[in-house]
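Progress narrative, Year 2. Work on PDZ domain-containing protein from Undibacterium terreum advanced from sequence curation to structure prediction during this period.
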Amino acid sequence: MGKRLKNIGLISLGMIAGVAASMQFSAMAQKNATAPLPVEELRQLADVFGLIKSDYVEPVDDNKLLTEAISGMVASLDPHSAYLDKKSFKELREGTQGKFVGLGIEVGMEDGYVKIISPIEDSPAYRANLKPGDLITRLDSTPVKGLTLDEAVKKMRGEPNTKITLTISRKNEDKPIVVTIVRETIKVQSVKAKIVEPGYAWLRISQFQEPTVEDMAKKIQSLYAQDPNIKGLVLDLRNDPGGVLPGAIGVSAAFLPKDVPVVSTNGQLPDSKAIFYAKREFYAARAVGDPLAKLPEAVKSVPMVVLVNTGSASASEIVAGALQDYKRATIIGTQSFGKGSVQTIRQISADTAVKLTTARYYTPNGRSIQAKGIVPDLNVEETADGDGFNVLRTREADLQKHLTNDKEAEVGKGKVVDELEEEQRLVALAKKAKPLEYGSKDDYQLAQALNHLKGLPVKTTLAKVEDKGEESESKSDSKAESKPEPKKK
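Result:
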């Protein structure tokens, strides 16, 4: 069992600024390269290193040159491979444990600026009303233009109770927005749950961390203690950027038949060719006993809806894909992010490492999610008027140097707008929208999920598929075709 746990790879999404990194560690044994080294190219590298040392306008530290060379080499591969220096490696380890010091924003890079992908719920950034799509142009007095994403992330990190001033460029705002935020030690509560109305429960996972499976099991037990006759369950994975692979396997295993395949991976190394099952040894690395053992039997058959959107990525796509393949749940929402690659942490010194893409992952039916994402069974946007700030989000297929999908045609943004006037209308609506509190009475997608579970009509929207240029509706919104899947025996 110990050997099997060591072979579990890492699932991650992008860079995290002041947030818990959506990553996990792998103790997978590093294989020695057998291919001959390119001696001539390495000689050129050494020559350039010597030239810089001798001829550059001022002295350059050896460590800085070599570190930047490694960083650039790894970063050139794909958007998710990266060199982790001492600080980044420490932050990654803290992130998987569910606590960190920072602002609480998931970020990427666009046009040389830091782009906010999503603020983490209940974080300083969330309370400051930072929005997806905002561009950070200045950190205190330092312009972001010219900084690498890693450099910008380091500036946003800091000690608890220290301040940082962000200058924000927001689409359709004439003037920059200046916001001062106090850094906090943020403990991410990755699992939330409640009875939203008699007979119907809502279970939200905002990120997959080491404690997620145990926390989810406790929440489910609490739900059934409140209402032993739950008639429908909504698993909310919206804006869940991913996280540790055992967490995704454990969450899937809670609702699937025992021992079935949940996800498979494939890459160059023999250890990257693996199938992961709904078994304790694949999800309970840190737990004593099986955290799912005391779940009520009804959880295996209760009618389910899984909510996803453009911010659902990586580990959350593994869960949605598995439940969709087994027809265990109806997927409702909008097309997910499309990150179907596995990153493995290779430690190269006591306090540094390389995060390297080592495999693609596949759903139980062999589907690749990479650069495509999960296409919902019922396409329902965030509000009755449109998809809110999701229309501004970047997806995996939009990232430069993204890994290709080896199974199916790639799909770009889930919502493709052909007319400039329509795009401006959607942006204007998104700008006016208030931050949505998931699980509240104003949660439109949750309301539609509950309608589906009750057998009532669901207000679906047309989804456009970029690679075909066609409009299609996942399913009819008629009462007859919007009933939940039959209970599994």
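Residues 99-187 form a domain with the Pdz3 Domain fold (CATH 2.30.42.10). Residues 39-55 form the longest helix (17 residues).
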